[in-house]
Write a structure and sequence with these properties.
This protein has about 350 residues and is an alpha+beta fold. It has helices at about 10-60, 345-360, and strands at about 75, 80, 105, 115-120, 130-135, 140, 150-155, 170-175, 185, 195-200, 205-210, 215-225, 225-235, 240-245, 255-260, 265-270, 280, 300-305, 315-320, 330-340. It folds into 2 domains: about 10-140, no CATH class; about 150-360, Sandwich (Jelly Rolls), CATH 2.60.120. It is elongated, with a radius of gyration of 27 Å.
Length: about 350
């Protein structure tokens, strides 16, 4: 009688089986972890949107946003959010535990706006991973918050303008630096002041009307800035010399101006700002003629004071014409930053990254 041999796995077959089971288990764990991460991110966005809704209800009834938010959003007997939510744990992606919260900050002396900073582990609904910022205008990529604050002299931001409708004149553009150098809107020809545009090419801006109206802002003081940043858009029919910032109103001053309708070369009357040829940096480059191609695009320019200008050069007006009445700025400005000191290369890079992510991407 012949006995049948029982079949058995060979060592190789066992090893292959173990490897397959391990790969499948890893895939399952990876899928489950990703699903949980996406779920946490979805909750973060949902929480922030609910906070925004509660804040708008608060604003509509009270006339401003709360100065601070702790465990609830309420005013008197009115409750707009019973429990201020907590971000789900753990933090995901590149977010730190400190980032994993909904950090509310009111903006302005009259609490006319706010910021909520929070962090997503990965992309979701058009938002990339990383720190995000929610404002009354929506939720923005890149965090969009300024990290270099030491020496900040003036900060004007069109995205923080509140209580103005599209096309309304801007009487006061609030300084967010804390120094109260609020920009007061004016018109040299007693026509239109600068006007608010709620959505120019997808984002807010302040519009200057050029020579016809002579619209400008008066900063109220001589600001001895040593590093300046602007986000600007220049109209195709702007004066061939358009002054973005000057020391005097229609008088011989120093100015930073955009020169040449075709090349949009940016130059400055500040004798030794940036370099001997008086060029200033556009979109991070010292060759503005090569990086200023479109009249409709926003651009970032940066300049810093030179050694002989540190104690004598100042700014007082934005958009005003220098000597003669034909150099009024015509276009739009979205953000302005003045520092009372020279930034080092790392700080300058941080500010440029902030402005680029916020306005140029």
């Amino acid at each position: 009688m012949t006995k049948n041999k029982e079949s058995a796995f060979t060592l190789l077959e066992l090893l292959i089986t173990i490897v397959i089971i391990g790969v499948l288990a890893t895939l399952v764990v990876f899928f489950v972890q990703n699903t949980r991460k996406n779920s946490r991110d979805a909750k973060r966005v949902s929480d922030v949107k609910q906070i925004q809704t509660a804040l708008e209800l608060y604003f509509n009834n009270v006339g401003h946003y709360p100065e601070e938010v702790t465990s609830t959003i309420s005013y008197g007997d009115s409750i707009y959010m019973n429990i201020y939510p907590t971000a789900p744990s753990p933090a995901d992606g590149d977010c730190s535990e400190a980032d994993n919260s909904y950090r509310y900050s009111s903006i302005g002396d009259d609490n006319s706006s706010y910021e909520i900073l929070f962090c997503l582990g990965s992309g979701l609904s058009g938002l990339s991973g990383g720190v995000k910022m929610a404002t009354p205008f929506g939720i923005f990529n890149g965090g969009n918050y300024l990290t270099v604050s030491d020496g900040l002299l003036l900060h004007l931001d069109a995205s923080k303008i509140k209580n103005l409708s599209d096309g309304e004149q801007v009487s006061t553009w609030e300084d967010l630096s804390g120094n109260s150098f609020n920009a007061i809107g004016g018109s040299y020809n007693n026509n239109l002041k600068p006007t608010y545009e709620e959505n120019y090419e997808g984002a807010p801006a302040v519009k200057f009307h050029g020579n016809v109206d002579g619209s400008y802002f008066d900063l109220g003081s001589n600001l001895y800035a040593k590093s300046v940043f602007f986000i600007v858009q220049v109209d195709s029919d702007a004066p061939s010399l358009s002054c973005v910032v000057t020391t005097k109103l229609n008088g011989y001053p120093w100015s930073i101006r955009i020169s040449g309708v075709r090349s949009w070369r940016i130059s400055t009357d500040f004798n030794d700002w940036i370099n001997n040829s008086n060029n200033i940096y556009v979109n991070g480059s010292a060759d503005p003629s090569a990086t200023f191609p479109s009249n409709t695009d926003r651009h970032m320019f940066y300049a810093e004071v030179g050694a002989t200008s540190e104690s004598s050069k100042y700014f007082h007006y934005i958009g005003a014409s220098e000597y003669g009445n034909n150099r009024w700025f015509k276009g739009r400005i979205s953000e302005v930053l003045f520092y009372d000191r020279k930034l080092n290369s790392e700080e300058r890079s941080e500010v440029e990254d902030y402005l680029t992510e916020k306005w140029l991407e």
